[in-house]
Amino acid sequence: MKKLLKIVPLFIVTLAFVAVITPKAEAATTSWYSVSGHGSGCQVQGYTDSTVYKKAATSIDSYMKTNGKCNTMNYEMTVVDSEDTGYGAAGYANGSFSKQTSTKKFSLSGIRRDVDVNSFKVRVRYTAGGKTFYSPSITVYK
């Protein structure tokens, strides 16, 4: 019993240490952007599910949402490189929304075929109601 009382606290401390140092996926969120002509105070924000996509990742998942003060507006989303050149093989999404778009999946296999390096940077380009903005930089590993 005494041995068990010594092991349990050690196990708890070890588990807490592992939980603290284990890296967590961090979503990439844009700032809020004002969109004119779609309601008073209308703002839009873009999200991706991570800022780093390892070799096993298959897609960049992204969506846009509003602050709830927007009328229906058109949107577009695509993955681009640092020079704002789109990756056609990754896919393209468009439609209309007033609250939140559905989550769009952009294929990483298509992007990986287009590059010759082990890791590279991309961004998601969002256009909503005529306003264009970009996700933070995203690292993709081949």
Describe the structure.
By secondary structure, the chain is of the alpha+beta class. It has a single domain, classed as Sandwich (Immunoglobulin-like). Helices cover 19% and strands 39% of the residues. It has two helices and eleven strands; from the N terminus they run αββββββββαβββ. It has helices spanning 2-21, 108-114, and strands at residues 28-29, 33-34, 43-48, 52-53, 59-66, 73-80, 92-97, 104-107, 119-128, 131-134, 138-141. Strands 4, 6, 7, 9, 10 and 11 form a six-stranded mixed β-sheet that branches. Strand 2 (33-34) and strand 3 form a beta hairpin. The protein starts with a helix and ends with a strand. Residues 16-24 have low confidence and may be disordered.
Q: Any chance you could write out the topology, listing elements then pairs?
A:
Elements: H1 2-21, E1 28-29, E2 33-34, E3 43-48, E4 52-53, E5 59-66, E6 73-80, E7 92-97, E8 104-107, H2 108-114, E9 119-128, E10 131-134, E11 138-141
Parallel strand pairs: 4-11
Antiparallel strand pairs: 1-3, 2-3, 3-5, 5-8, 6-7, 6-9, 9-10, 9-11
Quick take:
With 142 residues, the chain is an alpha+beta fold. Helix content is 19%, strand content 39%. The protein has one domain: Sandwich (Immunoglobulin-like).
